[in-house]
Amino acid sequence: MKPFxxxxxFSVMIGMVICSGCSGEPSQDDIxxxxxxxxxxxxxxxHEVKKxxxxxxxxxxxxxxxxxxxxxDLTTPSSGREKEILVIDISKGVKERWVLRHTRKKxxxxxxxxxxxxxxxxxxxxxxxxxxxxxxxxxxYAGKYEIDGRKVKIISRSGEILLTLNLYDDGTLWMETxxxxxxxxxx
Length: 187
What we know:
Blueprint: H1 7-18, H2 28-41, E1 45-56, E2 65-76, E3 80-92, E4 98-105, E5 112-116, E6 121-126, E7 130-135, E8 140-148, E9 151-156, E10 161-167, E11 173-177, E12 180-186
């Protein structure tokens, strides 16, 4: 009698079944479990968590850290019940499968004028993702901006990244320069 499946095919199928939940990024259940751990410590009640998507941050290496967007329905002692979209910074854990590094409310759009502390660069963010970049030493650029996790990228009309800024929780921006951090504040 011939075997139903060849041993190599059978091994591959077993591996697929065992690793069916190993897609690399955190699942909706993983995100809920992570948030529940933090919620219990802070007297917060989670009603619903809906994963909207995850993106590998590439830090320190691919597959170790993800920025996930999730719609969260929660009740806090100070604010009561509310729904908000959070950006959740998640790392692979040792004891737990995933570990919460940081959460913040999702900022999807900037508006207004931001200038750096040295007075050399000004960025004007317009509704709809439009941005203009002005440099004191000359040159102005118009394009789009996009928010990617904790980064804000100013992109020219031709698709070239003109500037990448880091995003603080309070919405202020900064970039690393040779002489240190250059902070941008709303002016």
